[in-house]
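User: Can you predict the 3D structure for this chain?
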Amino acid sequence: MARGALAAHRRLRGADDAATGRAVTVAMERTGVDDPASWWSRVRRRPPTDVAVLIGYQLAVGIAIYVLSVHRGLDLSELSYVFRRNDASWFLSIVHHGYRPHGDRPAAIAFFPLYPAAIRVAMWIFQKDVVAAFAVSAVASVIGHTFFYRALRSRPELAGGAKNAIVLLVLWPTTIYFSLLYSESLYLMLTAGFLYFLLRDRIGVAAVFAALAALTRQPGFLCVVPLALWVLTDTTRMWPGRLRRLGWAGVAAAGYATFLLINKLVYHEWFKFTRQLREHWGKRPAPLTQTIPDAIRFLRHPDWNLGWPILADHYFVLGTMLVLVSWPVVCRRRFERCRWVLLAWGGVQWVLIASSSAQSPVSAWMSSTRYLMLVLPLYVALTDLAHNRRAIVYSLGTGSAVLAAASLHRWITKQWIA
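Assistant: Here is the predicted structure, written as structure tokens:
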């Protein structure tokens, strides 16, 4: 009797296996896949863990903003006003009115056009400008963080520090700006995408991402530096081939050229945005021999009128300089092509940030912590200098998370001026 039951079980199991096999064959014929193992692995593939974690991170930040707002007694209309403050108001004015050389907001040209354009497109779905802007920021933030993590994972020499680098990025003191109506999240998506395709040696796609980054924020045009360096240091190709590929740098520079053309067509001045930065915000470029001594003098005799974020801006800029200088010295044994390219990219971005000057040293490096957040090589450098030890990285992350919580509180209570 037991033998009969066992035989019946085997027949049923064989019938099930045959049915499964026929189903797989039919699906393969429909999808054009020849390898059953390949098809079955695609069917059973789970959602990527990194994407799920980063979506959770984005939701957690959004919930934290809402809970703290409710705790402070803000209703939805007041919260909408908070979202529209400062730079967000300029972006939304561009969404609705574009760039106008006359009227009460000609200084809008200081803000690059791609983020407002993305909001305008998203309004076809979400109707309301604030909701559309928040959707653009949230989606771009998830994609950008994922791009950065996978860019590092794609290179064996950088893969070991990918998790620690992404931890430092999501816990940066001004990480809240990835969830606001600011261009940080879109810029992160484009520069991280640029890095992802650059490290995979897909130069054409990387150049397109670089061009779009240059249409989002001013430092985007600096992507030309790592792109050119990556192409020129490719020892697997002869020099004629390298020089031909260097032509993609022209595509990368096209984004910045397009923005300058907008300046010329609308305001009749190629660099009108720099004039507005100087006249409206008091910001102008200056040599490092001036800005660094000014910053040191300010830290020796700080002015507390604008609060601790101003001191943090100055300390973070000077600290980043020390990190980038010490990186190739302390980690010289592991420095190779990828790290030299990242160092060059981080270095030129830091020079642009540190070259900002103003009439008062107090406001010269205002919001610099927010700008440094987008210098992606900085996180690789910190991870390397920590020798990829989790205890060190997580200690840095904890301290940074405390500042991030304080920044969130100041932003909700309208005390944040960045």
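The chain has one domain: 49-412. The longest helix spans residues 2-31.
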